[in-house]
Amino acid sequence: xxxxxxxxxxxxxxxxxxxxxxxxxxxxxxxxxxxxxxxxxxxxxxxxxxxxxxxxxxxxxxxxxxxxxxxxxxxxxxxxxxxxxxxxxxxxxxxxxxxxxxxxxxxxxxxxxxxxxxxxxxxxxxxxxxxxxxxxxxxxxxxxxxxxxxxxxxxxxxxxxxxxxxxxxxxxxxxxxxxxxxxxxxxxxxxxxxxxxxxxxxxxxxxxxxxxxxxxxxxxxxxxxxxxxxxxxxxxxxxxxxxxxxxxxxxxxxxxxxxxxxxxxxxxxxxxxxxxxxxxxxxxxxxxxxxxxxxxxxxxxxxxxxxxxxxxxxxxxxxxxxxxxxxxxxxxxxxxxxxxxxxxxxxxxxxxxxxxxxxxxxxxxxxxxxxxxxxxxxxxxxxxxxxxxxxxxxxxxxxxxxxxxxxxxxxxxxxxxxxxxxxxxxxxxxxxxxxxxxxxxxxxxxxxxxxxxxxxxxxxxxxxxxxxxxxxxxxxxxxxxxxxxxxxxxxxxxxxxxxxxxxxxxxxxxxxxxxxxxxxxxxxxxxxxxxxxxxxxxxxxxxxxxxxxxxxxxxxxxxxxxxxxxxxxxxxxxxxxxxxxxxxxxxxxxxxxxxxxxxxxxxxxxxxxx
Length: 610
Ligand code: G6P
Hints:
Elements: E1 3-8, H1 13-24, E2 31-38, E3 41-48, H2 51-58, E4 67-73, E5 88-89, E6 95-100, H3 106-115, H4 125-140, H5 143-152, E7 158-164, E8 170-176, E9 181-184, E10 189-192, E11 204-207, E12 212-217, E13 220-225, E14 236-237, H6 253-259, H7 261-269, E15 273-274, E16 279-280, H8 289-294, E17 297-302, H9 304-321, E18 324-329, H10 330-333, E19 345-350, H11 356-367, E20 371-376, H12 382-386, E21 389-392, H13 405-424, H14 429-440, H15 442-450, H16 453-463, E22 468-473, H17 478-492, E23 495-500, E24 517-522, H18 528-540, E25 544-550, E26 562-566, H19 574-592
Parallel strand pairs: 17-18, 17-19, 19-20, 20-21, 22-23, 22-24, 24-25, 25-26
Antiparallel strand pairs: 1-4, 1-10, 2-3, 2-4, 5-6, 6-7, 7-8, 8-12, 9-10, 9-11, 11-14, 12-13, 15-16
């Protein structure tokens, strides 16, 4: 979703800003723009389309400025065109802003301003904020104070950066609900909505808190709350490498991230798994160990792929911990007045840690006094900071919009949490040993699965022109069926549905004919025979079966048109292996169809608006 970069320092701002925008492209966007202060005047260019389109209109223009702001927009109010792209200016043209988030009371502010004779050029809520800041500036003649007063009147969310030719040596930023990070370099500062745009310049960052603003000048920075209280911010160190946000020889980020999974799963359990003691150590949960030991109910809340992880987590925790588990879409949970008891544990799962609905859901749970935990990838993100405790998944930056490695790392962490709670609640040592041993063997097995890539590519070629796909699985592999279908529709735009295999009889079976590929996750477990019966039902209707099966299963060849084998593991760990062929299948089909795999149309990596 929208991305922000701001720069003040000694380098040419335009170079830092464009590089920053390119680093944020993965988030999904539909237009881009910049403003720099050139000879005390604002210089703005903006364009619908890609950052490369913006670069074209800047080609040949010499810009020496050391201060500027830039934005990639993902349309919410108003279609994606040049006029609606950011930066937006006030009526004088002397104040510009870039804004992420939504101004909920924009209609009321617009009316007040229109009545006073102010005008608007775009269809965005963001422009209203720019004009509003300009209106207040005319009264107070102080940029920081104008921004602060305007934001005190605003309902909604914002990550905001303001620049003005009135005070050309200054940049002001603020946040509520949308992330904003300030990189602190040597004699320079880089503001961004995402650390990917910062790490080329510095690893030292300040995370702004909600309702906090920062004023940056060439000489330093100062932070305060929107209520005008000076704040003191710690500098944090980001520990990922620039190579982690580059393709490293792979054609797409998504493929690189699929192939990283042996490593990222290992990173998720490194230092945590105590194989010899059949248990795990999770420092992030130490403060809530007693609460977890005595919990009567766990509620997972998440969106998208993270919601699928939660479904697997439900099965695993109920099985190992004997605690009742519920899984809720965050967008539903936040608005439906859920029954939450003070001894409930609510776990928010989020790769980005910034998904607006998930953040709001956890805040709702907090209000109702539940213990709120996070399973998050991005260190320092809003969800990580707003939870009582939690476990990072340590998957490293995930750039491909379609989540892959974050899913398998989330599953790994969920099983760690289940073992952690389960061992306090009665899992025996032998069972603990079996689980931890099986987990430790996963990275090698993932390497084995990845060797099937060429076979999957061939299957992708054969089926890429299908209009619909069905994905079926049972038990732990039912959520994998959902995730496989989601991957395919996200990046190839082929309609795909995931179902519990036995539910097929209650609807999807009507769709099956010789043109319908059906992907079965049919690994060896206690319900294997039932899944085979489901496969036979598909075959009887001439459906084409692609089966993900356990190595050594020769029987399945009689039923399936194609079989992809994965190594055997204990059933609750199979999703970590069985999802990988489905990620590859979606990837190769999308490539075959010429789709933009890393930035699929209309999708955003981090959905920071509801
Ligand atoms: C978007 C992304 C998905 C992701 C979902 C939840 O839809 O495109 O890949 O699963 O948001 O995001 P989160 O960061 O909270 O896991």
